[in-house]
Amino acid sequence: MVKKSQKFVNPRFARKGEYKEVISAIIKEGKCPFCPENFKYHKNPILKNTKNWLITRSSWPYKNTREHLLIIGKKHKENFKELYMDDFKEIMSLVNWANKKFKITGGGLTLRFGNTDYTGSSVAHIHFHLITPKLKNKKSIPVYFPIG
Ligand SMILES: [Zn+2]
Fold first, then answer.
1. How far is the CA of 99 from the centre of ligand 1 (A)?
2. 3 Cα to the center of ligand 1, angstroms
3. d(CA 123, ligand 1 centre) in Å
4. Residues whose CB is under 5 A from ligand 1 (ion)?
5. Residue 51 domain-assigned?
6. CB of 72 within 8 A of CB of 127?
7. Residue 14 confidence (pLDDT) above 90
8. Is residue 147 included in any domain, yes or no?
9. Which domain range does residue 44 map to?
């Protein structure tokens, strides 16, 4: 059994006004906002499910993203060592599905894991970000993804 953090969210990295308020509300509840039973703060529909993962648009997309999707596990995991090949197979299928559906021809897939004091992630529950940037005059505008 992998030890879970007592701190499901880290307010240090909540950037904007509304997001900061939501994070404060989640802290008061003391529950993980990405676990299926508490998935009420998320504002966008689930686009596709696999057995253990789902894909949805980020409620608070990063600046300069054309698409900012989150791939979220249905079980509470915080550490990389909790992921198995079956997880990566499902994640691959969701990334391939989204790339086709949203005509993503290039972008980034990122994962932060473990202690949120080192990750810059506001939610400890493991999730991948699938990001493609906006274009301006056919050139991409960089998206900055914080780690730490
Ligand atoms: Zn969770």
1. 26
2. 13
3. 8
4. 32, 34-35, 76, 125
5. yes
6. yes
7. no
8. no
9. 11-140
One-letter amino acid for residue 79 of the chain:
N
Each residue's pLDDT tens digit, 30-44: 889 899 988 888 889
Say what the pTM is: 0.88
Looking at residue 21, what is its pLDDT? 81
Residue 71, both tokens: 């791939």
> Cα 83 to chain center, whole Å?
15
Q: Has residue 148 been placed in a domain? A: no
Q: Ligand 1 centroid to 144 CA: how many Å?
A: 25
What total of structural domains would you count in the chain?
A: 1
Say how many Å lie between the CA of residue 33 and the centre of ligand 1: 6
Task: Kindly report the CATH number assigned to the domain that includes residue 72.
Answer: 3.30.428.10
Dist. CA 98–CA 119, nearest whole Å: 25
Closest CA to 129 of 64, 66, 79, 57: 57
Q: Is residue 4 in a domain?
A: no
